[in-house]
Specification:
Blueprint lengths: L2 E2 L6 E2 L16 H29 L7 H4 L10 H8 L7 E5 L11 E5 H11 L1 E4 L2 E4 H5 L8 H9 L4 H6 L15
Bound molecules: zinc ion (ZN).
Length: 183
């Protein structure tokens, strides 16, 4: 039985050339290969662009990286090494997140993260003054006076709670049937 490829009109001679992926259904092997290659190229190119922008960013006198002494490590001057360490950028919503905001672009300090994850990470490194003491959010959650974990802590910070309330107010135990996070 022979059928026609819905894209190029070419003949699909063998049944096995049909893909089980709905997107590729009715395509000939050649068109499927082309689709896969194009998709890979797209992903690859956003990772490459991200890498190139990172290199440019740290050398830009209008950005704070130069003055803070933040650089891209020797190893990551080569795109192949960067790709090997970080993998492809998972999506356009992801960007390079430095765990330590004052640290360099290097394997130990970087990961792909969404804006939301990054905001949370930034909050963790933000200083909070309470009881006359200055500590980062991470440090506060390890303080004996602190009643909540880092997730609740950073959420409260972002919601504008007073420092003492963030630290000392116990986390509400959620009722079984509660559907909204009213905390
Ligand atoms: Zn085709």
């Amino acid at each position: 039985m022979s059928m026609q490829c819905r894209k190029c009109g070419g003949e699909i001679l063998k049944r096995k050339y049909f893909s089980r992926t709905p997107k590729n259904e009715g395509l000939c092997r050649k068109c499927i290969n082309h689709a896969i290659a194009t998709k890979h190229e797209q992903i690859h190119s956003i990772t490459y662009t991200t890498w190139a922008c990172m290199l440019k960013r740290v050398k830009d006198p209008n950005k704070p990286y130069l003055s803070k002494g933040i650089t891209v490590c020797e190893r990551w001057q080569d795109f192949r090494n960067f790709l090997q360490d970080m993998g492809e950028r998972p999506s356009r919503l992801h960007s390079i997140d430095r765990k330590d905001n004052n640290g360099n672009y290097e394997p130990m300090n970087c990961r792909w993260a969404t804006k939301q994850q990054q905001a949370s990470n930034t909050s963790r490194n933000v200083f909070l003054i309470a009881f006359g003491e200055t500590k980062t959010a991470s440090e506060w959650t390890r303080d004996a006076r602190c009643r909540v974990g880092i997730t609740t802590f950073t959420r409260r910070m972002q919601s504008g709670w007073t420092p003492e309330a963030i630290i000392t107010k116990p986390s509400r135990i959620r009722a079984k049937c509660e559907t909204t996070d009213a905390e």
